[in-house]
Amino acid sequence: MVRFTAEDKAAITSVWKKVNVEEAGGETLGRLLVVYPWTQRFFDNFGNLSSASAIMGNPKVKARGKKVLTFMGEALKNIDDLKITFAPLSELRCDKLHVDPENFKLLGNMLLIVLAKHVGEEFTPEVQTAWQKLVVGAANALAYKYH
What is the pLDDT of residues 127-143, one digit of tens each? Predict the structure, then answer.
């Protein structure tokens, strides 16, 4: 279980306030699908995913990415109990969708890249450390229901 200090929470919150969920969400999911093309199999109903430009411009990718980051924003309200927050999503991804839990870590890494790009120099090593704890905690919580 990840433990967040007051400094971690402040660093996460300071960055989150600057995040355009729609823009960052689409870019995060888009990068995942481009960099790790095998993850596209979960999105076969999204239409054209044939190239990086098609993926990054795909409205369904953008909409799903926004949904993912919107949920992350809700999870931040319960940051000290990510396992409970992500439990319903963990169950769905484990039992019905059969998502490889490694993909949660990959998505978290894409989010870190997007955040660093969007907030620039404010994404200090200390801020990155706090966000790394968060994405690892979220990935672990999403993988919790796996057998």
Answer: 999 999 998 888 887 77
